């Protein structure tokens, strides 16, 4: 009987020890697994970090490339729009100049008219001269005046076979001595263009043939005397008069009728000598 009880106690004790051992082993294994999992997770994050960074950089580069391409496309479209707008404005301006030349044709008494395009103009001599695509082969002669924009802008200078240099009125050193007529009421006063005041942007007229009054706003047209014989081409309006005891030395400043800064087409005007 005592032996049976002892065996029973031994079995119970063994079971308890076994249960406790299993519990301890399970707990330790769980802790080990948890730590191992944490370590693996850390290594995984470390390994993945460069790939994530490269992926982010690739994505950013892709966006930058798309943005750059879109900007380049927009720039090209904007340039094309500006180009087309400038071309349209240029054509509109040229058409307006042609219309003004046609209007003047009906008012001119000159018998010789030659239409021409401006083909060359340099920044250094922009206000001094321009070159047109008509020359001696087209009938250009040295006594012809040049009109554009509704009024006189210059006179014929050097003539080639198929081109001509035009001396502009805005040339401060112009020595062509074109005759003009100042219309004061019913009185006509003749004079000579002697130069251009580039500071005031006004034409200078002197050597008047009369001491008659001249007022601001009086109309000035070509006189038809001397080498340039085309008459009544609009030149401009009187801006001011410098008074003098000698009417020959009186100086009249005239605001030009036509602005030659953007001239594209011209008409050469003259009468056979």
Short description:
38% of the residues lie in helices and 30% in strands. With 273 residues, the chain is α+β, with helices and mostly antiparallel strands.
What fraction, in percent, of the residue positions are helical?
25-40%
The total of beta strands comes to 12
Distance between the termini: 165 Å
Number of domains: 3
Strand order of the largest sheet: 1-2-5-4-3-12
User: Which whole number gives the mean pLDDT?
Assistant: 81
Word description of this protein:
- It is a single chain.
- A six-stranded antiparallel barrel has the order 1-2-5-4-3-12. It has a six-stranded antiparallel β-barrel with strand order 6-7-8-11-10-9.
- Mean pLDDT is 81; it is low at 29-33.
- It is built from one helix and twelve strands, in the order αββββββββββββ.
- The longest helix has 104 residues, at 2-105.
- It has 273 residues and is of the alpha+beta class.
- It has three domains: 1-106; 112-168, Beta Barrel (Thrombin, subunit H); 179-259 and 266-270, Thrombin, subunit H (Beta Barrel), CATH 2.40.10.
- Helices cover 38% and strands 30% of the residues.
- The chain has one helix at residues 2-105, and strands spanning 112-120, 129-132, 145-148, 151-159, 164-168, 179-184, 187-197, 202-206, 219-223, 231-242, 251-256, 265-270.
């Amino acid at each position: 009987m005592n032996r049976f009880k002892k065996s029973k106690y031994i079995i119970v004790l063994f079971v308890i020890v076994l249960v406790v051992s299993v519990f301890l082993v399970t707990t330790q294994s769980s802790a080990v697994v948890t730590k191992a999992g944490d370590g693996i997770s850390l290594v995984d994050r470390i390994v993945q970090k460069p790939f994530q960074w490269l992926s982010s950089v690739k994505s950013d580069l892709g966006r930058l490339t798309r943005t750059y391409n879109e900007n380049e496309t927009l720039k090209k479209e904007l340039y094309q729009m500006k180009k087309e707008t400038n071309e349209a404005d240029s054509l509109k301006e040229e058409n307006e100049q042609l219309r003004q030349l046609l209007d003047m044709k009906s008012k001119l008494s000159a018998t010789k008219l030659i239409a021409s395009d401006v083909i060359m103009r340099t920044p250094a001599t922009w206000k001094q001269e321009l070159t047109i695509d008509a020359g001696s082969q087209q009938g250009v002669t040295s006594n012809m005046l040049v009109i554009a924009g509704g009024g006189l802008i210059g006179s014929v200078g050097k003539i080639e076979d198929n081109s001509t240099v035009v001396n502009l009125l805005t040339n401060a050193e112009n020595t062509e001595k074109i005759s003009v007529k100042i219309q004061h009421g019913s009185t006509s006063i003749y004079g000579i263009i002697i130069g251009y005041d580039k500071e005031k942007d006004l034409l200078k007229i002197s050597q008047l043939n009369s001491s008659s009054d001249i007022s601001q706003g009086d109309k000035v047209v070509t006189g038809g005397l001397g080498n340039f014989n085309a008459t009544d081409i609009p030149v401009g309006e009187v801006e001011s008069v410098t008074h003098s005891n000698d009417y020959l030395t009186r100086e009249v400043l005239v605001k030009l009728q036509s602005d030659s800064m953007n001239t594209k087409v011209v008409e050469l005007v003259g009468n056979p000598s």
